[in-house]
Amino acid sequence: MDEQEIRSAFEKEGIDKEIKCPEAFAISEKYGIAKTDIARFCNTHGVKIRACQLGCFK
Asked: Residue 3 CA to chain centroid, in angstroms?
Protein backbone atom coordinates (compact mmCIF):
# COMPACT_ATOMS: atom_id res chain seq x y z
CA MET A 1 0.00 0.00 0.00
CA ASP A 2 1.33 3.40 -0.98
CA GLU A 3 -0.02 5.62 1.80
CA GLN A 4 1.03 8.83 0.06
CA GLU A 5 -0.87 7.84 -3.09
CA ILE A 6 -4.04 7.21 -1.07
CA ARG A 7 -3.59 10.37 1.00
CA SER A 8 -3.16 12.36 -2.23
CA ALA A 9 -6.27 10.81 -3.81
CA PHE A 10 -8.29 11.57 -0.66
CA GLU A 11 -7.10 15.17 -0.65
CA LYS A 12 -8.01 15.61 -4.33
CA GLU A 13 -11.48 14.21 -3.64
CA GLY A 14 -12.02 16.23 -0.46
CA ILE A 15 -12.00 13.23 1.88
CA ASP A 16 -10.89 14.01 5.41
CA LYS A 17 -12.37 12.01 8.30
CA GLU A 18 -15.27 10.23 6.61
CA ILE A 19 -15.88 8.47 3.30
CA LYS A 20 -18.96 6.77 1.92
CA CYS A 21 -18.57 3.34 0.41
CA PRO A 22 -19.52 4.45 -3.14
CA GLU A 23 -16.84 7.17 -2.90
CA ALA A 24 -14.25 4.56 -1.88
CA PHE A 25 -15.21 2.39 -4.86
CA ALA A 26 -14.96 5.40 -7.20
CA ILE A 27 -11.54 6.39 -5.83
CA SER A 28 -10.36 2.80 -6.20
CA GLU A 29 -11.35 2.77 -9.86
CA LYS A 30 -10.26 6.32 -10.71
CA TYR A 31 -6.80 6.09 -9.11
CA GLY A 32 -6.16 2.35 -9.52
CA ILE A 33 -5.92 1.73 -5.78
CA ALA A 34 -7.06 -1.63 -4.39
CA LYS A 35 -10.19 -1.44 -2.24
CA THR A 36 -8.39 -3.41 0.47
CA ASP A 37 -5.63 -0.79 0.54
CA ILE A 38 -8.21 1.97 0.90
CA ALA A 39 -9.87 0.05 3.75
CA ARG A 40 -6.51 -0.53 5.47
CA PHE A 41 -5.59 3.16 5.12
CA CYS A 42 -8.95 4.22 6.55
CA ASN A 43 -8.65 1.83 9.50
CA THR A 44 -5.08 2.94 10.21
CA HIS A 45 -5.76 6.67 9.92
CA GLY A 46 -9.15 6.92 11.61
CA VAL A 47 -11.18 7.63 8.48
CA LYS A 48 -14.73 6.34 9.03
CA ILE A 49 -16.36 4.41 6.20
CA ARG A 50 -20.10 5.07 6.04
CA ALA A 51 -22.94 3.53 4.02
CA CYS A 52 -20.93 0.36 3.44
CA GLN A 53 -22.06 -1.87 0.58
CA LEU A 54 -21.76 -5.64 0.97
CA GLY A 55 -19.48 -5.39 4.00
CA CYS A 56 -16.39 -4.82 1.82
CA PHE A 57 -14.97 -2.24 4.23
CA LYS A 58 -14.77 -2.80 7.97
From this structure: 11
Asked if residue 21 belongs to a domain, the reply is yes
Give the tens place of pLDDT for each residue, 10-53: 999 999 999 998 999 999 999 999 999 999 999 999 999 888 76
Domain count, the chain: 1
Do the Cβ atoms of 39 and 1 come closer than 8 Å? Answer: no
Residue 34 in any domain: the answer is: yes
Question: Where in the sequence is the domain holding 38, given as residue range(s)?
Answer: 3-50
At residue 19, φ and ψ (nearest 5 deg) are -140, 140
Whether the predicted model's global pTM rises above the 0.70 cut: yes
